[in-house]
Amino acid sequence: MKAQIATVSRIVQAPTEPIYRIIADYRKEHPRILPDKYFTYLEVEQGGYGAGTIINFSMRILGRTQTFRSLITEPEPGRWLVETDTKSGMATTFQVVPTNNASLTEVIISTELKSRSWLEGQIAKFILKKIYRQELDLLADLAESHVRAVNSPSSEISNS
Question: What is the pLDDT of residue 156?
Answer without folding.
Answer: 40
